[in-house]
Amino acid sequence: MSARILVAAHNHPALHPGGTEIFAHDLFRAYQRAGCEAIFLGATNQIHREARPGTSFQGIGPAGDELLLWSGHFDRFFMSQVDLYGIVPDLEELLRDFRPDVVHIHHLLLLGAEFPHIVRRTLPDCRIVMTLHDYYPICHHDGLMVRTSGKELCHKASADRCHACFKDIPLDRFTLREQHLKALLRTVDRFVSPSRFLRQRFIEWGLAAELISVIPNGIPVRAAPARPDRNGGGRPIFGYFGNLNPWKGVPVLLEAARQLIADGCEFELRVHGGAPFQSEGFLDEIARLFGETAPIVQQRGPYRREDITELVAAVDCTIVPSVWWENAPLVVGEAQALGKPVIASNIGGMAEMVEDGVNGLTVSPGDPRALASAMRRIIDDPDLQRDLTVNARKPDDIDTTARRYLDLIETIEPARIEAA
């Protein structure tokens, strides 16, 4: 399929290397390799770029096929684009100039939930696809579906439950928020979920099941040297990769490591990632835990995306201890692609990617003792590590994923005049 595709996300991986931005950008390049003419549009704000008077757009990258949309005026509660006299006309002009056959949306933050409607109004025949990466439309708590008090997992959103998390926001505003977002999302032709779990969450929220396809996230193919086998012994090396924040389970991981050190276990833990925009209390907590577990636990700091393969290849086992319903963490795919076992929380999309005792180990979220027990199994049993490695489930490469998206897009009827 040869098409013009506008790929839109809520940031650019060069500015904010989150999983959604990275995957969206990888897919954008894969579309180009498949023969499509593609542009990447990443929305940003004053955290990463200052506004430039007279235009909403800024360039990024050397090729001229990547743009930033400066969106400093945005209603996070309603996920609404409020700059009707600046951003909206500029978006309409971009759409008219590029005239994409397909707009592929990866997030509504900063872009605004009105974006699909703007596309439909400007280009009635354009096909609109949206990948659901998290639960932002469902949950005002940063799309986590975790209660604001006690970090309790939330199984279902409702106006009453959401108001209980945010008592300063009137209950009826949560009802209006849901109606507002569902009305605007009706303009989307097809949704894609990288996991069955997240698909089911959105069906329960009210999206039509027949409109949501499951396409797992693919990753670029990259060769990397493998770490030598432990040969029946030796000290295993565990690795953590990602931003350091409470929801990724970093304190749980560090506490598990502290328990293993106290028990005299021999291992190494490399923690890769920065802690941007975190509270002082959280930073103090992890600083204390890093101090108590050094030098066995090494805080290695932020890393570049192009280094991830080499870093993952250098460890024996990757740990993903998230305490929220992760959808499809890219690091699990990176590890499995290199034949590395994964220890992950047994919730959300992680439970679909890691089967306990087959290609990794799973543990209850937020339980340092359970995580320490799983790590101890790897430490004490090199044969188990080898067995889990043999059963690693390699994800699709990103070019295969792009073809699956293009096949889906071809099934969409382009004429939607009635919705314009």
TrEMBL record:
InterPro entries: Glyco_trans_4-like_N, Glycosyltransferase_grp1. It holds the Pfam family Glyco_transf_4. Keywords: Plasmid, Transferase. The keyword Transferase applies. Gene3D superfamilies: Glycogen Phosphorylase B. The keyword Flavoprotein does not apply. GO terms for molecular function: glycosyltransferase activity. SUPFAM superfamilies: UDP-Glycosyltransferase/glycogen phosphorylase (SSF53756). Coiled coil: none annotated. Residues 17-220 form the Glycosyltransferase subfamily 4-like N-terminal domain. This is Glycosyl transferase. It comes from Sinorhizobium americanum. The lineage of its organism: Bacteria, Pseudomonadati, Pseudomonadota, Alphaproteobacteria, Hyphomicrobiales.
